[in-house]
Amino acid sequence: MFAKAFRVKSNTAIKGSDRRKLRADVTAVFPTLGTDQVSELVPGKEELNIVKLYAHRGDAVAVYVSGGNPILFELEKNLYPTVYTLWSYPDLLPTFTTWPLVLEKLVGGADLMLPGLVVPPAGLPQVQKGDLCAIALVGNRAPVAIGVATMSTAEMLASGLKGKGFSVLHTYQDHLWRSGDKSSPPSIAPLALDPPDLGEEKGSVQADATLQGDMRHLALEGEEEEDEEVQQMCGEKSQSEATEDPSVGGLNPDPTDSKTLQEQMDELLQRCFLHALKCRVKKADLPLLTSTLLGSHMFSCCPEGRQLDIKKSSYKKLSKFLQHMQQEQIIQVKELSKGVESIVAVDWKHPRKGSVLEGSEVRTIVINYAKKNDLVDADNKNLVKLDPILCDCILEKNEQHAVVKLPWDSLLSRCLEKLQPAYQVTFPGQEPIVKKGKIGPIDITLAQRASNKKVTVVRNLEAYGLDPCSVAAILQQRCQASTTVTPAPGAKDSLQVQIQGNQVHHLGRLLLGLLRSSGARGWRRHPTVRGEKENRRQGLARHRP
Q1: Contact criterion met (CB below 8 Å) for 425 and 439
Q2: Neighbouring-strand partners of residue 346
Q3: How many CB atoms lie within 10 A of CB 102?
Q4: Which of 173, 167, 168 has the alpha carbon at shortest distance from 185?
Q5: Burial of 74 (0-12, 13-18, 19+ CB in 10 A)
Q6: pLDDT greater at residue 249 or residue 162
Q7: What are the pLDDT digits (tens) for 337-355?
Q8: 3-state secondary structure at position 505
Q9: Helix (H) or strand (E) holding 8
Q10: What is the pLDDT of residues 445-472, one digit of tens each?
């Protein structure tokens, strides 16, 4: 609802009688709150305002603001808490858990789908259709979203955790949150609850114990048809596995790796950081809260089977790690508000931010990834199932829930299309020259000047390591014609060679010979000389009697 900017109609202070009415409404809607808690939420003397606004879809909303933060909002005579309120009262609503990568989709205005839920050991909270619920992330009980359940818990289990589970109304990082102090969620440890007795469940369909077990199994292995292996998006295991697997919370040590666990965690931390900057963070996201970088971007870049834990690294704290990255001039961190650090600048051209891959290497990486993660369709080996990582990399927004498999050729071509093109030219005794974009061919064109005189123009010699002035001197001798070197129009710091007469045929052969003798090598076998055949035909046609 607040994914886009809203329009404020009015902002007025609330009188004493209206405060008392608001307290009564809060008590009726949230009976678990005590009298003292209600008085704390709706203060008697402190400043309390009501802001009437229109959401981007035209919905009329009343927002109650206390201490500079929105605490409640009213829509169609229904009262809802904001994330600021839920951080103070995390048990106010039944809470469901999802993965950090899902938060980005919710902030963008998406609803929460059931395959994105994480089933804890105690099972899902018991709710009915239309109940107001909170949504938190794995490992932190502080809610990051508020939504309305579209079905009861029993119906969720009976559906096999498929379909839409919650209509999301408000999230952390949306425009309603931005109207407050923009603080980050506090760290609240998950509760250790005993599994409920399904046999004593009231007012709901009896759920089979085996079905509950199947749901936990789904939380570990994921849905192959809708959102396969959601946990791969953040590199963490389910809460039920965390209590049994001693490796959770750290690394899965490789017995063949001589590095210490701390050194491995340092490498993993840097890898996730650089991957997040390269693939997920955009210029428009800056300034970016450091906590958001970690929770919404770095966790989702963690490889499968490993968990990012800064406390197990040599840095111990995120702030120290980011200071180190700032010293290496990759990012710039500033404290925009008291105690809250944000990334305000990124050196997008820093050499550590990316590497160059040839097309064959990209294909090998994608094929190995699909085989390692058992994504090849068992019934049709020509199809590959798309896990959340592949979906995020190659699918458009409107394809996220529609496309679940792709043929190999389509998968590989899409991966190559998403990569930024680059080219490399190598000269003997020199470091390879790598530049972004596509290398242009040496352009030879025939032009007509005053008095019907023809001249041959050569451009883009510098891209292949050829000095235009040296080439002009050689051409003057070989072609026995005058040459001039002038700035190339429309190209910065580039020169063009102009030779008198129609020299297209001679130039093509001469330039190929020069390039072979210079030892220039690139990812193409030979450079392309554009316009040679066409201009030869034009020249011959003009000289026919």
Answers
A1: yes
A2: 331
A3: 28
A4: 173
A5: middle
A6: 162
A7: 877 889 999 987 776 655 6
A8: helix
A9: strand 7-13
A10: 888 887 778 889 988 888 877 888 988 8
3-state secondary structure 84-120: HHHHHCCCCCCEEEECHHHHHHHHCCCCEEHHHEECC
Radius of gyration, CA atoms only, the chain: 31
Report the 3 state secondary structure along 212-250: HHHHHHHHHHCCCCCCCCHHHHCCCCCHHHHCCCCCCCC
Q: What is the pLDDT of residues 88-107, one digit of tens each?
A: 999 999 999 998 888 888 99
Q: For residues 529 and 536, is the Cβ–Cβ distance under 8 A?
A: no
Q: How far apart are CA 234 and CA 140, in angstroms?
A: 14
Q: How far is CA 512 from CA 373, 424, 439, 461, 502, in A?
A: 47, 18, 16, 12, 18
Token digits of residue 188: 């609240």
Q: Stretch 173-199: mean pLDDT, rounded?
A: 74
CA distance 230 to 99: 7
Instruction: Please give the C-alpha separations between residue 153 and each of 121, 125, 200, 202, 296, in angstroms, as whole numbers.
Output: 15, 7, 15, 12, 27
Q: Is the dihedral of CA 187, 188, 192, 195 positive or negative?
A: negative
User: Rounded CA gap, 376 and 398, in Å?
Assistant: 23
> Which tokens in the block code for residue 472?
């002009």
Please give the pLDDT value at position 243: 36
Q: How confident is the model at residue 386 (pLDDT cuts 50, 70, 90)?
A: confident
Higher pLDDT among residues 172 and 479, named by residue: 172
- Among residues 314, 317, 325, which one has the least CA distance to residue 262? 314
Q: Tokens standing for 349?
A: 């051209």
Coil vs helix vs strand at 45: coil
The most confident of the ranges 163-167, 351-355, 523-527 is 163-167
Encoding tokens for residue 479? 């072609």
The pLDDT value recorded for residue 540 is 30
Q: Where are the alpha helices (DSSP H) in 373-459?
A: 388-394, 408-418
Q: What is each CA distance from 91 to 12, 94, 180, in whole angstroms? A: 30, 7, 22
Residue type present at position 531: G
- The two three-digit tokens of residue 408, written as one number: 């190999």
| Peptide bond connecting 287 to the previous residue in cis, omega within 30 degrees of 0 | yes
Find tokens 């389509």 and name the residue.
410
How confident is the model over 262-301, as pLDDT tens digits? 888 898 898 888 888 877 888 888 988 888 888 778 877 7
N- to C-terminal Cα distance for the chain? 76
Say whether pLDDT at 333 is over 60.
Answer: yes
Tokens describing residue 300: 């989702």
Counting other chains too, the contacts that 210-214 makes at CB distance below 8 Å and 24 or more residues apart are 211/157, 211/158, 212/123, 212/157, 214/160
What's the rounded Cα separation, in Å, for the pair 484 and 497? 6
Distance CA 315, CA 8 (A): 44
Indicate the length of the chain as a whole number.
545
Q: Measured between alpha carbons, how far is 123 from 216 in angstroms, rounded to an integer?
A: 8
Residue in this structure with the two tokens 């190659």, named with its chain if needed: 394
Which pairing describes strands 454-459 and 483-487: parallel, antiparallel, or unpaired?
unpaired
